[in-house]
């Protein structure tokens, strides 16, 4: 699952050179669901960075705590709000890392999953819009998760789908056939990710110090050949 994100300061145009940004990029060393983050979507053919609420909130949702922050790739067709968003409203969430927790005898050990060089990467997501009145709209999203790859399986069984820079525009374009978009929702290659243990301070989303993402042990890597 994806229950917490690490979003550090980085240049998003290094991932998407044609990206248009407005205002400050939302960062957080320990970003929990039901908070705002910065997402990327295609608007009139232009890549735009926009703030969105992490947790899909269609107009009929009555309890905010029920806003889903993840959507399983295998069941996107089972819920109307996921099905419609996948067809027409796909977006991306650039991050520095994703926190996962490994079950241990007496506690859960948090790990930060990132790239071997700790460069930012992009997560697949879908979004919806809710109008509170005729002129005021709120946008929200859910990350799309897939089965974890072999490297991550000892730690977690689910992980967000990664979208590469070369796939980004096709993923965002609603004209891209859904069959093609579905093919992008696959576990990341083993060598694309690394992870290291971090302090259990990350367990509390109120903790927002940079030490949340500091390694407390070595980076673990795995080559595809292993």
TrEMBL record:
Keyword annotations: Covalent protein-DNA linkage, DNA damage, DNA-binding, Hydrolase, Lyase, Protease
Domain of life, per the record? Bacteria
GO: which molecular function terms? lyase activity; peptidase activity; single-stranded DNA binding
**GO biological-process terms attached to the record:** protein-DNA covalent cross-linking repair; proteolysis
The EC code for this enzyme is 3.4.-.-
Family affiliation: Belongs to the SOS response-associated peptidase family.
This protein is called Abasic site processing protein
């Amino acid at each position: 699952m994806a229950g917490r994100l690490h979003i550090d300061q980085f240049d998003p145009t290094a991932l998407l050179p044609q990206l248009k940004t407005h205002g400050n990029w939302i960062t957080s060393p320990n970003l929990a669901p039901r908070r705002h983050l910065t997402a990327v979507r295609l608007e009139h053919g232009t890549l735009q960075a926009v703030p969105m609420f992490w947790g899909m909130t269609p107009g009929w949702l009555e309890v905010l705590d029920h806003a889903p922050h993840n959507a399983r790739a295998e069941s996107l067709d089972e819920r109307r709000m996921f099905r419609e968003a996948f067809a027409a409203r796909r977006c991306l969430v650039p991050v520095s890392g994703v926190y996962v927790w490994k079950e241990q005898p007496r506690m859960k050990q948090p790990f930060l999953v990132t790239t071997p060089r700790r460069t930012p990467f992009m997560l697949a997501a879908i979004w919806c819009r809710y109008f509170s009145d005729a002129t005021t709209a709120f946008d929200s999203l859910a990350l799309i998760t897939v089965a974890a790859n072999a490297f991550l399986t000892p730690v977690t069984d689910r992980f967000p789908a990664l979208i590469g820079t070369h796939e980004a525009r096709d993923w965002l374009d609603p004209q891209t056939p859904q069959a093609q978009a579905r093919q992008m929702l696959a576990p990341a290659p083993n060598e694309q990710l690394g992870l290291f243990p971090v302090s259990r301070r990350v367990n509390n989303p109120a903790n927002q110090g940079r030490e949340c993402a500091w390694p407390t042990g070595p980076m673990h890597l795995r080559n595809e050949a292993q």
